[in-house]
UniProtKB/TrEMBL annotation:
Protein name in the entry: NAD(P)-dependent dehydrogenase, short-chain alcohol dehydrogenase family
Keywords: Oxidoreductase
Record-annotated Ketoreductase domain positions: 6-190
SUPFAM superfamilies associated with the record: NAD(P)-binding Rossmann-fold domains (SSF51735)
Gene3D superfamilies: NAD(P)-binding Rossmann-like Domain
Phylogenetic placement of the source organism: Bacteria, Bacillati, Actinomycetota, Actinomycetes, Pseudonocardiales
PANTHER family registered for this protein in UniProt: 17-BETA-HYDROXYSTEROID DEHYDROGENASE 14-RELATED, SHORT-CHAIN DEHYDROGENASE/REDUCTASE
Coiled-coil intervals: none
Keyword Oxidoreductase: yes
Keyword Glycosyltransferase in record: no
GO molecular function, one term: oxidoreductase activity
Family: Belongs to the short-chain dehydrogenases/reductases (SDR) family.
Amino acid sequence: MDLKNKVALVAGGASGLGREVCVDLARAGALVAVLDRDEQGVRAVAESLPRGLAIPADITDAASVEEAVERVCAEFGTVHININTAGVVDAGKIVSRGKPGSFDDFHRVVNINLCGTFNVMRVAIAAMLRNDPEDGERGVVVNTSSGAAFEGQPGQAAYSASKAGLIGLALPIARELAGKGVRINTIAPGLFDTPMSAGLPQAVRDGLTAEIPEPSRLGRPEEFARLVRDIVGNGYLNAECIRLDAAVRMSHR
């Protein structure tokens, strides 16, 4: 799909990987709707873009997302591209000091990372299906998983489960949409230089970097954004999960 004058809805676009995706898509000529619960961040990113639209919304709230997509369609006409980067990281063992882990904490992470992404997808795809096909395509979805979906470490049960669930969404939905011109793919990034990792102590960052084979550094957000653009542009890529991690495989500790 050619990005010029296409409408992209980026959930989690106020910071980190999502913000870089917004900037990159706008640079390629897309109209970008920035969706995030961080209202101040959303407005800052949208105002920095040539054709940006700020959409403050909670991805876990059905009505909020439906209203958000309605507004995008009212302002920009439709949705062609949906990129989902919104998510949270939390740690918690299933049993700690002899006591069961927090179910509320587990539920919160899965609800935001997995259910929230599905919530945005279902409304965005409904809008895509109303588009006239261009070279057979009506829309593209790109979701953000994680290397933790494959090599979750102790304490990452909720995060790993939520990110593995995103990979599991792709094939059944791609099959459901077969013949309708909408593709769905997933990126599983490794360790990236984002505000989340920037908050770690330098010793921890150095330890993480030492585990990355080649290149031995944290990923750059623009490298993630470039892959998003490549996925959108490759009409034959569907129901795939691409690891973007410099060959890192996290240890069991």
